[in-house]
Batch of 2 targets.
Target 1
Amino acid sequence: MVTTVAFDADQTLLDTRRAIEAATLELCAQVARQYPGSPALEVADLHADAVAAWEAMPERDVRTVRSIALARSLGRVGLGHAHGELSEYYFAARQRLTHPYADAVSALSQLGERFVLGYATNGNSRAELCGLAGRFAFELYAHERGLAPKPAPEFYAAVLAAAGVVTGPEQVVYVGDSWSHDVVPARAAGLRTVWVNRGGSTVPDPGVADAVVVSLADLPAAVRSLAA
Ligand SMILES: [Mg+2]
């Protein structure tokens, strides 16, 4: 019996990519306003520094990685001394500009009538700051209180513990957009899985996900069919 539906956050419920692009532009504008004498902060450099930081430290938490990348970008334009203040500006903008996808809120409302809902992310998008306050019975953030990030089995064990599973892991459905971080390890931990395939990519291995949806509008029906 399915009792619980737990969600990945970024690019599943939240359009984080768009928020990062918008927050990056806001940071560049803020630097131009606040430090008119310094060289312009370039979007391309911010992007390149973020990619390089991720490649150098994929195991670190996203805030740390972004902070290190911002330090590098600000150093390029002689603003390393303003890193603390400007990184706080960026992180505040990033949270404020992160919104649920248009199809997310309705799906959560429908599913919330019948199932316990959970939020379990590797990222730092706080549900309450991103338009999803009060939606979830539990929220898990990797790297907080020692929680290992996905795809670690410990992450999914924590999801099951937070869900209070009684009969077994199959009573939890995990919904996410990442095949390698959401679908494959959740299934390995015994959960049911739904792959959110917004881009309509080819399903890597048809036997692994219990359901595939291209929109969260299709999610309530997909979960109901798993729960039947
Ligand atoms: Mg994701």
Target 2
Amino acid sequence: MKASEVDMYNTIALGINAPVYAFYAGRILQRTGIRSGSCLDVGCGGGYLGLALARITDLDFIFFDQSPQMLHCAEENIADDGFSTRARTMQGKVQSIPLADSSVDLVVSRGSVPFWDQLPLAFGEINRVLKTAGWAYIGGGLGDPETRAATSERLRKEYPEWQKKHRRPPLHDNGHYASALTAAGIDAFSVTRNDKGMWITFRKQ
Ligand SMILES: C[S@@+](CC[C@H](N)C(=O)[O-])C[C@H]1O[C@@H](n2cnc3c(N)ncnc32)[C@H](O)[C@@H]1O
């Protein structure tokens, strides 16, 4: 993305889309029950999902992305939110995460999986860095139908060009993700697609 587009993405994420991140942070906490320890936000962009989770937990965070520009944005957002002592950034690709085996309690990721190639490698890396009984919560969406309707309406009015210009790669079907998870050696997982988005969850065995 160009610098001006990163700025606009950041403005939209912190403003109009803030309820979307808060919505998923609440669901992640409800599903996993993980309130403390370490969380890796993969493809974090400006850190929006992790920061929403930081507000409702005591977790420490590693904000991880391949893009130095997005990590710079995340660093500013972390500082602005007062979470510098609980967060650090790390550059890299999900297909080769520079972290030790069994080192994090929770992996979250929103809006990034459509961009990943070598999915078995990516899921295998996430599983490798998770501690036993740790959770992965990976996917995307714009919240529940009410949240989505409100944010889409504001986006259309306030940033009419944004949705036309920024299309993510299409999602694969559930079977494609299931095959990649199985190929990564992950036996127990869930892939759901409904009015709250597409989400993959699994717990390290
Ligand atoms: C659409 S943005 C989503 C950002 C943020 N998570 C959100 O929900 O707004 C996708 C992000 O995934 C990152 N990304 C894409 N492929 C990646 C990979 N293979 N490894 C790490 N990050 C990746 C991009 O750099 C980008 O910041």
